[in-house]
Amino acid sequence: MDAVSSKGMQYTDQGRPVPAEWREDLENRVLAPLAKTTWRYFVWIGFLLAIIALAVVMYIRQLNNGLIETGMRDRISWGLYIISFVFFIGISHAGTLLSAILRVVKARWQLPVTRMAEFITVVALMVGALFPLIDLGRIDRIVNIVQYGRWQSPLVWDLLAITTYLTGSALYLYLPLIPDFALCRDRLGATTSAWKRSFFTIAAAGWKGTPGQRKALDRAMTIMMVVIIPVAVSVHTVVSWLFAMTLREPFNTTVFGAYFVAGAIFSGVAAIIILMAVLRKVLHLEDYITKNQFMALGIFLLAMSLVMVYFNLSEYVTTGYKMEAGAPFHFHDLMVGYLAPFFWGYIIGVIAPVLIIAFPPTRTIKGIVTAAVFVLVAMWLERYIIVVGGFRVPLMPYDARAYAPTFTEWAIFAGAVALFLLIISVFVKFFPMVSVWEVVEHRGPEPDESEVVHHPVTPRMEAPVAPEVA
């Protein structure tokens, strides 16, 4: 809780001063997108809706004609849909998990980007969960899983894990939004439409910032941050069991659980860095999302890169040393065969953070964002290698088949990416993208002012001013 001196100066809970001008500018910059919309925003939304419309048309065509519209066949029965499912679930992993861990250890540097990370989790889960339904061919078959699913099936485990994680992540996202909804309710006033004011009033849940409310919110957030960590770890572990519980040679490994969790954190941190860079530029948040946050996440990305290098060395050295049945074909496929371009592209992406972030000349915001892009591409390639590479290993004496996604699959995948971006774009117009009250109470102005890009103070919005909401 922020303290106020006898002279009116605010202080964070660590005793750092919070100038009134700085807090006012923070509120104005964070709330500005909620009060004003430009024509460029509508053009962007229209573009995303057009891509989603194409995806819907192609999905309807797939429903009518069956999975023959895809490149999947009896020998390679999982393709781009399951690749995308694992990819989006992986992106979701880092947001809430990273936020919860840093809140538990009371780290303060992440507070300006915490909400972005938590929102990535919810959106990626919502989009990723669609792909198993699309892969079913007939969406009504999901009823059979619910009604007749066997508890011994990893598919049922996956359904329960994702549902639990999505519910917990949505609640974990909403709790710290309550004080900021109250801020929107009190600050925006007549600058927004009546239905938006009603939305902020309902979402604020009667928040007044009383000591009792603050204590209840702090208790609820503490419970959720402790609960969400094991749930997040369990989700991608269960996703890995979809593969590891089979007898196919590339999948038949006990390390898949830890490997998938590490890979999910790796790709999730990369996604956070990219989203953070985009919103920082678009929403003019350079004064509040500075090089400090990029450096901290960049170092974390570098550490996870080394972890991924270790897992890959451990997996390929031990498997390649023994060369059990099926392994020689798989290794040839990866190193010099059909999957070689994907495999070596993946390896380059995994070591890119080491080559970029480990050296001071390239350890910049642009360098860290570039490394994050490499990682995101590499982790998509890794999912392609796992899914397609695993199914290409023959179970009987027949020739391996190739797999290439059709236009239908690419269109649906593009629609999912567009849906991901659309939800984020709409979220920006309804929810403050920086947790104002947490930054004010626990962080304050950035300590390294030399890295801050200054802008003129945004004029205060002409709206009724209610008592300040923390």
Could you explain the architecture of this structure?
With 470 residues, the protein is an all-alpha fold. The chain has one domain: Formate dehydrogenase/DMSO reductase domain (Formate dehydrogenase/DMSO reductase fold), CATH 1.20.1630.10. It contains 17 helices and three strands. α3 runs antiparallel to α10, α7 (154-174) runs antiparallel to α10 and α8 (178-188) runs antiparallel to α9. The longest helix is centred in the middle third of the chain and has 34 residues, at 211-244. Mean pLDDT is 84; it is low at 449-470.
Strand content: under 5%
Instruction: Give the CA-CA distance, first to last residue.
Output: 8 Å
Number of separate domains:
1
The string of secondary-structure elements, in order, is: EEEHHHHHHHHHHHHHHHHH
- CATH class identity: Mainly Alpha
